[in-house]
Amino acid sequence: METPDTPENATETGTTTAGEHTGIAAQDWAHASADPQYRAAVVDLLGALAYGELAAFERLAEDAKLAPSLDDKAALAKMAAAEFQHFQRLRDRLEAIDAPPTAAMEPFAAALDEFHRQTAPSDWLEGLVKAYVGDSIASDFYREVAARLDSDTRALVLTVLDDTGHASFAVEKVRAAIEAEPRVGGRLALWARRLMGEALSQAQRVVADRDALSTMLVGGVADGFDLAEVGKMFSRITEAHTKRMAALGLAA
């Protein structure tokens, strides 16, 4: 999943040192998975991430068809390959914990497919903005969740959220397009705002539809968020979105 990894473009989550982790976050998978509810929540989380990575691979491959040059096409193809490697790591992890990958992904396929249908880009630039802005919002959400997970699962989640190179690529191309034709900026800014709303709604739907995952996030297991922390989390995600918009040269 393409997402910037620079401090100014990420939420503050993930800066906690190992010694500061408590509860399940201080345990490894072998110990944490003894709780069946926690195990079910992690399977859900990895299933959602795995399908997201597979969808990202498919979308980048499609976006490559709209690329204006062979160099751009090759760059996107390379990023798509990186997304598929992320998918493979998640699939392998699900198999390792005796969770059939297809069964883990299936509950999230329809909702994620609908999100991508509703936010299908109309051109090359909208595709770049969607990957940079829209996917990054989802990645920020997963990073927030990762901070509450066992050490093994947390490390895997953070690894597959690593930037594939799309962040700097998108910023360079979008800023150049706006510089060449300033009126493009207004259209892309409106598009990015729409993506923000759709991405947040999608994250909420994914959690609400899965009992184990929602219970984990609101404090049932894994030291979940209380209501005040949920508010702070979305404030951090919104702040990171605003910084990404600025990096693109767009008004938030």
TrEMBL record:
CDD domains: Ferritin_like. It holds the Pfam family MiaE_2. InterPro entries: Ferritin-like, Ferritin-like_SF, Ferritin_actino. Residues 36-220 form the Ferritin-like domain. This is Ferritin-like domain-containing protein.
